[in-house]
Amino acid sequence: MRQRHKNPTIPPPNQPTTQKPKLSKSFIFSSTKRVFALCLAFRVVNALLVQTYFNPDEHWQALEVAHRIAFGYGHLTWEWKKGIRSYLHPVLFAVLYKVLSLLGLDTPWFMTYNMGKASSMGI
């Protein structure tokens, strides 16, 4: 009878196996809280460090509409007149406009610089 060659990677059938624990997931992605914290940290760093260009359409999509909501005048494009855009995003800025108005801080410089900065950060 022929003798078998022993394969060092396969244990004999009668001996207990000692397996190394499997690495299922990376530590960072092991819980939803860690994933959320990682995404939030990335978003904050991205918002603070990335310098973008000014897109005039951003003005019509949020700030001009918010001004109209807060003060009753301003231009609306056809998307707003037809009701195909949501007012949720401009309402955030409209609240800020009203608060600044009540505090007497609604100067043109303050409104354009700070609201434009907040809009470009995605707030």
Automatic annotation (TrEMBL):
* Disordered: annotated segments: 1-22
Show the GO MF annotations. alpha-1,2-mannosyltransferase activity
Bilayer topology? Multi-pass membrane protein
Q: What InterPro entries does the database record attribute to this sequence?
A: GPI_mannosylTrfase (IPR005599)
- Its transmembrane ranges are 87-105
One biological process term from GO is:
GPI anchor biosynthetic process
Q: Which UniProt keyword terms apply here?
A: Endoplasmic reticulum, Glycosyltransferase, Membrane, Transferase, Transmembrane, Transmembrane helix
E.C. no:
2.4.1.-
Entry keyword annotation includes Magnesium: no
Q: Which Pfam families does the entry link to?
A: Glyco_transf_22
Could you give one GO CC term from the UniProt record? endoplasmic reticulum membrane
| Compartments, record wording | Endoplasmic reticulum membrane
Recorded family membership: Belongs to the glycosyltransferase 22 family.
The protein depicted here goes by the name Mannosyltransferase
The organism is Castanea mollissima
